Amino acid sequence: MYSLAQETYTHNDVLNMLQSDRSINFRYELLDKNEIKIKDLENVKGNIRFDSSQEIMGTASFSIKEIGDMELKSVDLRIRPFMCLQAPTGWIEYPLGTYIMSSPERSKQGSKVVQQVDCYDYSTILKEDKITTRMFVATGTNYVSLVRSIITTAGIKKTNIETSILTVSKVLEFEIGTSKLDIINSLLTAINYEPLHFDNRGYAVSRRYIEPLNRRTEQEYQTNNRSVIKSGAKQSVDMYNVPNIFIRYTNDPDGAELKSQYINDSVASPISTINRGRNVVDIESVDDVADQTTLNDLVRRIAIEKSQTYDAVILPTALMPHHSYRDCVFVGESGLGVGNKYIEYAWEMNLVVGGTMTHTLKRVVKL
Questions:
Q1: What DSSP line would sit under 276-343, residue for residue?
Q2: Torsion of CA 223, 224, 226, 228, to 10 degrees
Q3: What are 241-289's pLDDT values in tens digits?
Q4: What does pLDDT average to over the chain?
Q5: In angstroms, rounded to a whole number, what is the distance separating the alpha carbons of residues 331 and 219?
Q6: Are the C-beta atoms of 257 and 358 separated by less than 8 Å?
Q7: Among 78, 69, 60, CA closest to 113
């Protein structure tokens, strides 16, 4: 969750403004490939989505009415939308990401020509940039230093990757044609970090995984007199295919095999081996992991994330500009009888005044 603090306003000050009668607007900057502003775009309608389950998590689509000699055919232009909030001292603005434009599609709509543009966050640069020779990583290489280096080779200068002391314990090899994004996420998985994603300011971000139960609640949505929840909330509860035994192992003929197992045998869990009366096993090999402790943590993380799927909530709210990667959110929705802590896996914003933000959340579970 991003901080809303700005100028003389604290985070809570701005949150109170957002949860009361408010005036909002949107602004769109057109940037060149170096993020230098070309101009503000006018007559724009936009939709942005962040989905943490996807390789390229941030996507957007914009509908732009042509005015005068507007030209969007240059390669690698970017669009940066802002949500603007009227405060007592004037407008304050919050960036909602930076998106690389694909080729626009022009269409005639009445007397106007409209350009429809699909856009992607900077992960697309790393997905499209592939290694052209076989890549070897030497023993003793620091994982995070290598990740930062690969990001830089793709021309991305802004990074915020949490430091780690973990180093490669055996020589790693990546085949010709492997995308830099795949290499980076493989390295981050090996040290139990979040997959790479880009924040609202266009920084490449990753940090070590923290169990949801150990995270503080960053946002509350409740059906009270300050509620921004809209009608249409949904809850799905599906326990049928959720595993209760999780196993991961390394399969390296040249090195020692590592293996880790987690069994959910808790009497408090409705999907445990005890309460279900049968085993549902999730087992896979992993290509690389820093050490046994990291593998144990990784298996526990997989168990938590897959166990979360049995209770999912779709929550529509007013537009809020501060959501990020897998925020920890308390949902108190009286109509559904929901009152629990959830992790937000995806969110989507329709960038119009009075628009809706849709949150996809999965319940925090205790293992």
A1: HSS--EEEEEES--S-HHHHHHHHHHHHHHHHGGGEEEEEEEE--TT--SS-EEEEEETTTTEEEEEE
A2: 10
A3: 889 999 999 987 666 789 999 999 989 888 899 998 999 999 999 988 9
A4: 92
A5: 9
A6: no
A7: 69
Q: What 3-state class would DSSP assign to 8?
A: coil
Q: Give the total residue count for the chain.
A: 367
- On whether the CB atoms of residues 45 and 38 are closer than 8 A, the answer is no
Q: Please work out, in degrees rounded to the nearest 5, the angle formed at the alpha carbon of residue 30 by the alpha carbons of 71 and 101.
A: 75
Share of the chain above pLDDT 90, in %: 77
Adjacent-strand bridge partners of 333: 338
Report H helices in the chain.
11-18, 123-128, 143-153, 180-190, 273-276, 292-307
Q: From the CB of residue 64, how many other CB atoms can be counted at a distance below 10 Å?
A: 24
Side chain identity, residue 309 = T
- Quote the CA–CA distance of 185 and 53 in Å, as a whole number: 13
Contact of 89 with 7, CB cutoff 8 Å: yes
What pLDDT shows up at residue 234?
94
Distance (Å, whole) CA 244 – CA 217: 26
> Which has the closest alpha carbon to 60: 106, 24, 97, 115?
97
Q: What is the distance between the alpha carbons of residues 127 and 158, in angstroms, rounded to a whole number?
A: 17
Query: Rounded distance, CA 164 to CA 255, Å?
Result: 23
What is the chain's Cα-based Rg? 23
Torsion of CA 248, 252, 256, 257, to 10 degrees: 20
Q: Which two tokens stand for residue 224?
A: 């009270």
Burial class (CB within 10 angstroms; exposed 0-12, middle 13-18, buried 19+) of 49: middle
Sorted by sequence, the CB contacts under 8 Å of residue 276 that are 6+ apart come out as: 244, 270
Is a pLDDT exceeding 90 seen at residue 184? Answer: yes
CA dihedral 56, 58, 152, 132 (to 10 degrees): 20
